[in-house]
Amino acid sequence: MFRAMLRGLLTHKLRLVLSALAIVLGTMFMSGAFVGGDTIARGFENLFSTVDADLDVQVTAVSEVPESQLGPAPPTALVGPGAVAAIEVVPGVAQTTGQVLVDGALVVGSTGKVVPSTGPPRYGSGWVGDDSGFVVLREGRPPDQANEVALNASLAEASGLGVGDTARVLTPGRDLPEAYSVVGVFGYRGDRDSLGGETNIAFTMPTAQRVLIDAPGRFTEVDVTAEPGVTPDELRDRLAATLGDGYTVRTAEQVASDQADAVQGFIGVLRNGLAVFAFIGLFTGMFLIFNTFAMLVAQRTRELAIYRAFGASRGQVNRGVLAEAALLGLGASIIGLALGAGIGYLLTVLLEGLANTDLPVDGVVLRAYVVLATIGVGVGVTVLAAVVPALRAGRVPPVAAMRESAGPDRPLGRLTLAGMVVLAAGVTLLALRLTGVVDGNNVVLLGGGTLLTFLGVAMLAPAISRPVTSTLGQLVSFSTPGKLGTRNTGRNPRRTAVTAAALMIGVALATGAGVFASSAKAGITDAFRSDLTAQLLVAGDLTTGQGGFAPARARAMAAIPEVTDVAALQLDTVVFGGRDTVVGATDVGAARVIFSLRTASGELRTLRSGEYVVDADTAKRDNLGVGSVQTMVTARGGPMPERLVGVYETSSLISGPLISTDDAAGFGTRLAQQGYVRVADDAVVPIVKTELEALFADNPLVTVSDTSSLVDQAAQFLDVVLAILNVLLGLTIVVAVLGVINTLLLSIYERTREIGLIRAVGMSRGQLAHMIGVESVLISVFGALLGIVVGVALGVAIVMALDSSGFLSLTLPWGYLVAILFLAVVAGVVAAILPAVRAARLDVLRAIAYE
């Protein structure tokens, strides 16, 4: 029985290939995401194990304040001389080596700007030498004077600096660079210029302690070597007992694992993102597989009935169809797995290109779980899509072998009712999450709600496919081929709807993202135009959060003629009221004017030490009123009481606690990241901008720009995100086009005699191609329209749910929607090419005689 059904399936190889492509694409992206992530992760694990091979235990200090999320800042949790002395006398300690390693050390190039980075850290360190030979001095010598540095080879190449040159270096917390003589260039074992794309400026240790951490005699970590016979675990426990809770003590293995986990964070985001889109591709592929097997079952009615007449049971027929699906899924998944390994390798090459360095990877890592998951998901999705067609196949009665056809299409009443129930369930789940009635459970509420919404719309689609395609068909019904193509599209509404549903999913997601992006752009633009009164912005690198200027320079900015208000904004992450909070320090009197802040209670004025103001939402959340006292703990200062003197209405430009500039002395960074300048007369803005540029000419990271640059930057970020989303969602569009091709090919197969007859009565090959093209375009446009309606609804719901943020202003991207419809027409034309060619090649006489 199975062999007979398998032979029947293999007689239609083109259909199998087209159906298998959907699974191949989905499993390829899925396995590629995991293979690429595992390959990079394994490389960094091996690298960090090698880097830390010469230490047994590492000691670092614990900070009471969370690490700043606003960019690199000098660390404040340091190991002092007392702790080092205590470490040295612990039994089992053979040697201690203090280290200083800080992100944010920048070299100023010959253009006066900082040498750019593609993302990896830009370290400054204290030179300690290396007896193991891991660090290799390639040129010159180590630094031994306060004005000397050595550069790692990747930085030397990027900056064009070498031994004997002068390097201007900007270190964290400083707004002016210092000049150093380059005396050495170093690399790493294995002829590596860097470990993972990072740059490194090595100072003498006393200089590193002064310019990187502003703490002479202190270290960011201390590496400890154990005496022979003392295991790292034993030494770790002894050190932990001696030093107490203020320090973290880890073995070299734990350090390497933590370092690898930090890399895994980025890899995980990349891997999970690709896996999500792989799942979307597989989900859309289910519609293609379902349609293929449904049509194959319908076209093999007589064949299946003969099997039943010869004694095959329903179960045998069911199992036969499911076995066909399992074999199809297995073969496609194996191909997808093999291609995914190549995609994973290409992913590492792409990241190497973006980082402009060699990642520590060697070969391709293919773990057992990737093989099992890829094949399991591919086979499972294929079998699941074939369940309903398999059940239909088992219901074919033996008497059907004597009929010409399988009978009329079934009524749509039950399917439509079920679709309404599923759609209502999906909308309910989304509404519960988006309205905030239920918090958390994003996978169930958002993921499940979106999935049920798509399924519900797909189940309702057959009921509306005929009227919609008939209406659209009026545009092309001026010719006989156009009329025939329109009627053919409405023949089987289930088939048309399922084919269009695959395209609907991709278009809906892209449209929803487009609505959100356009609404975000409009909201941000409106907020800046209506509430921000400053015309000029003085800021460090807004992308990386690095750089800034001394807050005291705000007085020089305010002294420029025609400048009426200046608000220098210094931000840091602190503990405020027992909660990790981003706090801003500024002149609230000026900020009230510049950000159009409105008083909700109390007063908004220039603050004295120990005073703060906060937005109304935060005040409501924390039950705060004028006079409430909160304790603030900063990176460089102890607990400090802050008394609330004013509450400002929630603003889309600024939020959270604002304190006096005097109380920011304990911040981790001593720089103001942004400065907003209000000019009395717009006509003199260019003149003021020129004077500000002259004032900050000595600061290579600070730029003076029009405040509209903030809007442009936000818009560019949204455009990049949307572009990446659309590229990845192109996978679903490819699957949808395959679905249209497959449906039309199968439709031509079952209409072979009909095509022969219309050719015999005078229809030319060109007219036949026109007819099939109309069918293809109508299916594609119907799917696109479904996707646009669902996507706009989802986008509007998300915007309305998040409207309280103030950053969203509901806007429909009409140009984007029109472009999607145009692309749907193009996709329909492309999808029609192969079926049209196949139909045109049919021999007329053989087609007429076909049974």
**Number of beta strands:** 22
Average pLDDT confidence is 82
Counted by DSSP, the helix tally is: 23
Taking pLDDT < 50 over at least 5 consecutive residues as the criterion, the unreliable ranges are none
Distance between termini?
23 Å
Q: Report on the biggest sheet.
A: 8 strands, mixed
Global structural class: alpha+beta
Oligomer status: single chain
Strand content: 5-15%
Tertiary shape: globular
Helix content: 40-55%
The value of Rg in angstroms is 34 Å
Condensed summary:
The protein is of the alpha+beta class.
What would your notes on this structure say?
Keywords: Cell membrane, Membrane, Transmembrane, Transmembrane helix. Belongs to the ABC-4 integral membrane protein family. Among the domains are: about 55-260, no CATH class; about 465-530 and about 710-850, no CATH class; about 535-705, no CATH class. Helix 9 runs antiparallel to helix 10, helix 12 (about 440-475) packs antiparallel against helix 21 (about 765-800) and helix 21 (about 765-800) packs antiparallel against helix 22. About 55% of the residues lie in helices and about 15% in strands. It is α+β, with helices and mostly antiparallel strands and about 850 residues long. Strand 8 and strand 9 (about 180-190) form a beta hairpin. Strands 3, 4, 5, 6, 7, 8, 9 and 10 form an 8-stranded mixed β-sheet that branches. Strands 14-15-20-17-19-18 form a 6-stranded mixed beta barrel. A 4-stranded antiparallel β-sheet has the order 2-11-1-12. It has 23 helices and 22 strands.
